[in-house]
Amino acid sequence: MARLLSVVLALALGVATAFQPMRAPLTRSVQLEAAKEDRVGAAVAAGVMAASLASPALAITAEERAQLSYLQVKGTGLANRCSEVVGTDSLSVKSGTSMVDFCLEPKAFFVEETTTNKKGDTKTDFVATKLMTRQTYTLDGISGTWKDEGGKLTFTEEDGIDYAPTTVQVPGGERVPFLFTVKELVAKGAAGGNTLKPGYEFGGSFKVPSYRTGLFLDPKGRGMATGYDQAQALPGLQTGDEEAELFNENNKVFDVLSGSVEFEVQNVNKEQSEIAGVFVSAQPSDTDLGGKEPKKLLLKGIFYGKLE
Questions:
Q1: Do 285 and 110 contact (CB within 8 A), yes or no?
Q2: Residues 147 and 156 sit within 8 Å (Cβ to Cβ)
Q3: Domain boundaries, the chain
Q4: How confident is the model at residue 292, as a pLDDT?
Q5: Is the pTM of this model over 0.85?
Q6: Phi, psi of 116 (to 5 degrees)
Q7: Hey, is 171 helix, strand or coil?
């Protein structure tokens, strides 16, 4: 009886197995789709890991940045940030010392505005603005030379990514374009030796080239090196005071103005020969190739530099 029962159970199991649906073999398209999903999942995981490794909210030093790959930096905002320095050492500078990887990252933008209250009183002050440019407004890779001139250090900017077209919007809605730059900067330090340490200040003036180039055409097709000489149709036929008002619009010029900047060293790492701190820069806005008066801008941010 026991032998018969075991035979029946074996037959039942065989029948159940026979009637189970067989798994169809994966076709080529299904295999490719599965592999594609695996690659997408891996890319998403890598992006999440990169964001956790290099979050813009966290400080990052140049040494930590050098350990990240291109994909780990891409999309995180780190390419638009200056490296930070840890340490409060002091660093002696000899005449002829080069500073490389000089970086300026603005944190706040202000535009000078004149407002009139209900009583008719006018007030001129710098107002905070909203940044309209994507993360391409930081100056980086700038190089220059330090010189010791009679006990005063002087830094002269020579090369690098020293300009960045930027646009901000004032509270009233007007957008103000400008060329953030430190071209031909000559920054002199305070008297008292050739040592960079926390609290050391240096600054000077620089050139601000035109926001537009000579090939730019305005909405009426006028340009400096190409396009129409004057506005067409009725505006071009006006004379007297009307013509004087259009003179600057018709005669484009490549304005080269000037600005000034002040730096204060806050951190120094002697082992890595790095300095970092804050800066305040004042410069004019775009003149639309001489067609309008520039506005005054005030920028505040952080800087980084490595001495060689």
A1: no
A2: yes
A3: 36-81, 85-213+254-307
A4: 86
A5: no
A6: -125, 125
A7: coil
More confident residue, 187 or 246: 187
Question: CA separation (Å) from 127 to 221, 248, 302?
Answer: 33, 28, 20
Parallel, antiparallel or unpaired: strands 257-269 and 183-189: unpaired
Q: Are 82 and 102 in contact (CB under 8 A)?
A: no
The predicted-structure confidence for 15-34, as pLDDT tens digits, reads as follows: 344 434 444 444 444 444 44
- In one-letter notation, the amino acid at residue 25 is P
Q: DSSP 3-state assignment of 249?
A: helix
Structure tokens at 197: 């340490």
Cβ pair 124, 112 in contact under 8 A: yes
pLDDT exceeds 60 at position 236: no
Residues 85-134 pLDDT 10s? 999 999 999 999 999 999 999 999 999 998 887 888 888 999 999 999 99
- Sign of the torsion formed by the C-alpha atoms of 33, 39, 41 and 47: negative
Cα–Cα distance between 49 and 279 in angstroms, integer? 33
Alpha-carbon gap, residue 187 to 197, rounded angstroms? 16
Q: How many residues does the chain have?
A: 308
User: Are 259 and 280 spatial neighbours (Cβ–Cβ below 8 Å)?
Assistant: no
Residue 50 confidence class, pLDDT cut points 50, 70, 90? very low
Distance CA 178, CA 160 (A): 19
Judge: domain 85-213+254-307, CATH 2.40.160.30. yes
The residue written with tokens 């941010």 in the block is: 301
The single-letter code of the amino acid at 47 is G
Which of 271, 246, 278 has its CA nearest to residue 82? 278
Nearest one of 37, 42, 74, 79 to 60, comparing CA atoms: 79
- Taking phi over 0 as left and psi of -120 to 50 as alpha, with beta for the rest, 120 belongs to left
Q: What is the mean pLDDT of residues 157-166?
A: 95
Structure tokens at 302: 């952080």
